[in-house]
Amino acid sequence: MSEIETRNLIVEAATKFFSRYGFRKTTMDEIARHIHKAKGVLYYYFKSKEELFNEVLKQELNHVKAELSKITGSHEDSLAILKKYILTRLKLLSTAVNYHETIKADFFEKYDFVKDVRDDFARFEHIQLTHIMVKGKKEGYLDIRNIETNVNITLMLLNSIEIPLFLQNKFAEFEDTLKELATMVLNSLQKKRNV
Amino acid sequence: MSEIETRNLIVEAATKFFSRYGFRKTTMDEIARHIHKAKGVLYYYFKSKEELFNEVLKQELNHVKAELSKITGSHEDSLAILKKYILTRLKLLSTAVNYHETIKADFFEKYDFVKDVRDDFARFEHIQLTHIMVKGKKEGYLDIRNIETNVNITLMLLNSIEIPLFLQNKFAEFEDTLKELATMVLNSLQKKRNV
DNA sequence: AACTGACCAAAAAACTTTTTTGGTCAAATA
DNA sequence: TATTTGACCAAAAAAGTTTTTTGGTCAGTT
Questions:
Q1: Number of helices followed by number of strands (H, E) in chain A
Q2: Has residue B3 got a pLDDT over 70?
Q3: What residues of A are in contact with residue B163 (Cβ under 8 Å)?
Q4: For B38 and C4, how far is CA from C1' in angstroms?
Q5: A142 near A133, Cβ under 8 Å?
Q6: In this predicted structure, what is the pLDDT of residue A126?
Q7: Gap between the Cα atoms of A178 and B106, Å rounded
Q8: DSSP secondary structure letter of residue B190
Q9: Residue A192 bridge partners (DSSP)
Q10: Which residues does chain A have with pLDDT short of 70?
Q11: A44 CA, D1 C1': separation in Å?
């Protein structure tokens, strides 16, 4: 079996178990058994359990990044893009259970080993939102003096509501409200003239 | 010693210990010793440790409520009131450590016994914000179609950011940004004419 | 009415034993 | 040479046990 195939099988199986049981409750042995291999082979492809989890998380977030990139790159106007971005981001992340685990860990043990992947995602989002807002300003839709500040506040809000939504399972309860939330964020950035 | 005096002494001492060590690590005996009384006397005034903590939390939140009421009742225009309300709310709650403990508990054990006090505070805030927004609409400052929805979103945001701010100790880091956040919320509700 | 101090059951903490698990590696396979 | 294996080990987690602490009670005192 080719190296890449086995590696993929491992990540696939790991994704299954990590998603269902979480990092701690998943054992390397059960991942190996699931693909009918000896446990040792996992260590041929991955340095440690932490690195394997890292890879799973990375792929989970890569999927989100790919979808969000599509939105940012589309040819709609920046208002529509921003609204779609916010709603899609929340929708996609709501199913990213390994990502949820890492934010939950912020209150407990801390998963230091996922810092790089999470930082990468944070940087990605910063770039995307900056891009959208610069575009919006150019097009005259958005009334933003300090783009950096507005990007940071928007990201802070988006990150903050993840906790009630994903960790306290209020996503279903708030799903409709989220549209209003997005509208509110748009509203706060939109170019208008004071009455 | 009069009944009310002793009761106050107990609550005062309890506040001290609960604030420093939290609900679980504080013992009824040390509270009693601190006021040079036998432990049994605590149970003359309070049904249980939980009820005593409840009283401490209640007073903590009553202080916040009192300050916020002053703001809501002031004679400034509704935009200024709303901005002050948001900033003061966050500032005051940032020092309410027993309140922090109860939101932290949402991720762990759950302190069911504080539900009433917290619900009461939530209702209070709902009323205050509704009042401010109704006033703002009447005065023509705010452009709000559905007040109920806007109140709920604003509260959801305020509640959400408590977690990074208070539990992950990012209050100092974000303190300056909060002003911008308040401005952003105001902006989203303010009456303007689309360009 | 307000308070005490001895008392108890239950829970938490501390300690011990047992089991599981992450990780290694020499040898086997391909 | 590139993969894979299975036995192996130290360390950690889990399970089990003992000891200590603590919330709560109550008969009796002030």
A1: 9, 1
A2: no
A3: 160, 163-164
A4: 6
A5: yes
A6: 98
A7: 22
A8: B
A9: B194
A10: 1-3, 192-195
A11: 15
Q: Where are the domains of chain B?
A: 1-46, 50-189
Orientation angle between helical segments A49-73 and A3-25, nearest 10 degrees? 100
What is the b/e burial string over B13-47, where b = at least 16 CB atoms within 10 angstroms of the residue's CB?
bbbebbbeebbeebebeebbeeeebeeeebeebbe
- Whether B194 sits inside 8 A of A190 (CB atoms) is yes
Residue corresponding to tokens 């589309």:
A74
The whole-number average pLDDT for the span B95-101 is: 98
- Determine the angle formed by the axes of helices B49-73 and B97-105, rounding to 10 degrees: 110
By three-state DSSP, how is residue B194 classified?
strand
**Minimal Cβ distance to B193: which of A153, A164, A193:** A193
d(CA B16, CA B18): 6
| CATH code of the domain made up of A50-189 | 1.10.357.10
- B107 to A106: CB separation less than 8 angstroms, yes or no: no
CA angle B123, A186, A96 (to 5 degrees): 75
Spacing of A101 CA from D15 C1' in Å: 26
3-state secondary structure (DSSP) of residue A191: coil
Is A96 in a helix, a strand, or coil?
A: coil
Sole residue written with tokens 């940087």: A123
- A183's tokens: 């509208």
pLDDT of residue A194: 56
Under 8 Å between Cβ of B180 and A149: yes
- Strand D footprint, Cβ within 7 Å: A 1-3, 6, 24-25, 36-41, 44; B 26-29, 39-40, 43, 47-50
Query: From the CA atom positions of chain B, what is the Rg in Å?
Result: 20
Residues with Cβ within 8 Å of residue A42, at least 6 apart in sequence? A10, A28, A31, A32, A52
Look up residue A11 and give its amino acid. Answer: V
| Beta carbons within 8 Å of B154's beta carbon, 6+ residues apart | B129, B185
| A25 CA – D10 C1', rounded, Å | 20
Nucleotides of C under 7 A from a protein CB: 1-6, 13, 20-26
Architecture of domain A1-46: Orthogonal Bundle (1.10)
Q: HSE on the CB side for B154, CA within 13 Å? A: 32
CB < 7 A from strand C, the residues are A 26-29, 39-40, 43, 47-50; B 1-3, 6, 24-25, 36-41, 44
